[in-house]
Amino acid sequence: MSHIKGLSAVALMLTLGVGIMCGGDNCTRSHLDAPVVLTDSVLHRDIDAIGALDGLSVDVRAALSKVREGRGMSKTWWGVSLTAPADTVRVSLRFGNTDYGDILDRRIAMLTVERGGRKLADGEVEGFRLAGGDFNSLELSLADGTLSINGGGHRSRHLMDVALGDGFRPDGVEVWSVGALSVPVFAVEACRPPEDAFASGYTAEELAGRFGKSTDPIEGYWTYFDRENDPMYARPGGRYTLALVRKESDRAVGHEFVPVCYDIVYIDGAKTLGDKWKPLMLKGELRSTIFEGHYDLQWIDATFERMTDDIHATIDNASLLTLSFPMLKTTLRFSKIPGRVAIP
Q1: Helix boundaries (H) for the chain
Q2: What is the sign, positive or negative, of the torsion defined by CA atoms of 229, 234, 238, 240?
Q3: Number of other CB atoms surrounding residue 13 within 10 Å
Q4: pLDDT tens digits for 116-156?
Q5: Which of 30, 166, 215, 258 has a C-alpha 20 to 30 A away from that of 338?
């Protein structure tokens, strides 16, 4: 909500490269629908992330209408603030002259970071366009208690890192101006920890009790058996142990065909982002089709992107689970762990 006030992975990861965070269902994104002009005012955006914050990215492109040369710093400037109920981090970008009227005079851009009115860092930065009407960018990212700032005119470059500590949890972002400021871009991406975004809601004790008395031969634990894949398209994110947990279908009983559905729950074995994958997170879903032993598949890949198209699964003799990703030229197989083993 905004307002103005005064390599893909199947288990997998494509070899073309992977962004570590801020992908998939654990992130919310927002942006301007149309350019905005601020005049000594503030554009506020709520951070739409519930609970813990795993990462925050802010991208702003803006231009001051007037930036007059003179002694010292200009009377117009702008910046970006991260706001919390009792705390604010303010990043300011201001232009000026070192020795106005002198032959050695230089035009400069100054970046200042303040927290609660206390200066944390400041310094001259390069790469900005310094005239009125020139567009510049500021890009802020907050992760693991560190604020990283990039920016520039024609291209973005790294400017500085500022340690804020793990206790700073903003709930809003603001673009503000002293003077008239045109803002065509104001984008915010907030990411929750994957263990929150993909929590299954199951406990180890619940699964142990459920599997101990289940009459469904498919319910239970399944472990990695083997694979066929072309490494030019994908590579395994780990040798997973999974649990299949039967759940109610979301289709009405009155339908001609009511599928049987299973949650796929991660237990162990992740290598790609192994520190992010925690036991009992969701890894996908199986939904039965009219063909016996054949299932529609939803899969959450190693980088937390959800996959649904052109993938499927089969189960043979309630003992061999095959996950097929034809477009990635990959097949993964899992074998049923016999007995009523308690995992984890």
Answers
A1: 194-197, 204-213
A2: negative
A3: 23
A4: 999 999 999 999 999 999 999 999 999 989 999 999 999 99
A5: 258
